[in-house]
Amino acid sequence: MTAASPLVLRGRDGAVLRFTGAAVTLGRADGEHYIPLAAIESVYAEGRSVEVELISRAEAEPVVYRVEDVSEAAATAFVRAVDAALPDEVADVDGSTLVTHRPPVPPARRRYRGAVVLAGIAAPVIALDVFLGVVGRAEHAIAFWLPLVVTAIGGFLVWGMGRDLYRMWYLPRHGITVAAEFSHFTNKSRVYLYRDTTGATHRYTTTTAGPVEVSYHPRDPSVAIHLEGSYVRCMMAFMTLVGCGMAGGGVFWGGALVVSALQG
Known about the structure:
By secondary structure, the chain is of the alpha+beta class. Helices cover 41% and strands 28% of the residues.
């Protein structure tokens, strides 16, 4: 006989109650609570609410986890499934001591943030280019794209190389360092996996072969870096300086074009 799929109840304020057959897990804003069956006294369904009551000592008030605004039919099925799986004899324990808590994982950075930043940069640049074409000559509007490309390349070098250099200095000192395990190859790099203190798994991509230790940010474990050798770091610092020169020169060049267009 095929086992039933794990039951999931989604309630108010993003609460999620799951039963996998071995335990009940409750996900809330304060993190995930793992409740083994041995810690549960009983489970109740009251309309569209479900309560999980833990075993308590005689003199203590029982701990109750409650999820509201769930499907009434799903709540009934959930309670029946958990009741059927509970041990026949209630253990003489404080159920709250058996519950484990995992703090919430920081939300992943939204993918569209880069698009918003790009749009915020592109809009004034295009407006300025149109302004040059109107106030000056068409040559000014066309020539404006040359310093813009130089500035963009320089900014890209500073952002990429400079950011990684800063992380190589900051994260090994103030972050958490763990050993990453090799997962698989891609076309141009190797993918390693590492776990943070909450047990969540993250990917780290690099061209480095062999054992890799990554240092990640404690508030955002997806931000990680591994320490490169002295030669690579020197080259990164050099390319960062080159990027600063290109970005500064491009801005100066573009400013000169704007002044030239205004002067006629």
